Amino acid sequence: MTPLSQPFFQHALLAGSLVAAACGLVGYFLVLRAQVFTADALSHVAFTGAMAALAVGFDLRLGLFAATIAIALLFGALGRRARPDDVVIGSVFSWVLGVGAFFVTLYATSRSTADGTAGVSVLFGSIFGISAAHAVTSALLAGVVCLVMLTAARPLLFATVDEAVAAARGVPVRLLGFGFLAVAGASAAEATQAVGSLLLLGLLAAPAGAAIRLTDRPYRALALSTGLAVAEMWVGLFGSYAVPQMPPSFAVMAAATAVYAATFLIRRPVPRIR
């Protein structure tokens, strides 16, 4: 029996493909804007938000999206021109980890009869366990993220490469910064459901990092980052199906790491100076 004939695999492939595409698009700008630490912080924010929602009896997805988007916007508000620095991120990061520890304890003590595996699913993902309705919802949300990123790609690229000139030309640099952080937060929430909060940084950073190493052309790198993320998701899902002992999140990250490592073996031609 082929994996594509299995309903659970179809759901995982549908949601995973769109989530990976969104992460590839967002991750490219995170790397280009030197905001990878932001993605790292959002991975821990995702866990805290999910555990907070579970502790008070709400759906963990509500906590995921509310926490990641709110904290991402807070990063922007505390930073310069909606571009947070490492001090801001580190300070909020530490506070969020403390809040997360509190909600983990609250969930474990006040809801002992609840699903004991929920925290593990948030940490490591549960893409093979999503329902058809959940898969469609995830795919639609990820599709919206992709559409927003493609629409804003040109002005966002301008504001990223030369912020001062972009502002002088009338580009709403600060508004773009806030919008991008909100989209990054939504992408982090989506990726948490696929590969878990501990590993979502790899899905956001590794494909984009590999694409930037392979080409200097922005739009080609953006497309390559998206394509690599989707391909790595497929490799991970099919690999995990073939080897049931291998978790899908690990398989996806293994593929992403292998591709990024392989880029160091490729020598890019040095342009001739006339």
UniProtKB/TrEMBL annotation:
Q: Which residues cross the membrane?
A: 12-31, 51-75, 87-108, 120-150, 171-189, 195-214, 221-243, 249-266
**What does the organism's lineage look like at the top?**
Bacteria, Bacillati, Actinomycetota, Actinomycetes, Kitasatosporales
Can the keyword Ribosomal protein be found in this entry's annotation? no
Q: For this UniProt entry, what is the primary localization, expressed as one broad class?
A: membrane
Among InterPro entries, the record links this protein to: ABC_BtuC-like (IPR037294), ABC_TroCD (IPR001626)
Q: What is this protein called?
A: Metal ABC transporter permease
Pfam families found in the cross-reference section: ABC-3
Location(s) in or outside the cell: Cell membrane; Membrane
The way this protein sits in the membrane is described as: Multi-pass membrane protein
Q: Which UniProt keywords apply?
A: Membrane, Transmembrane, Transmembrane helix, Transport
Give the UniProt family note: Belongs to the ABC-3 integral membrane protein family.
- Tell me the domain of life: Bacteria
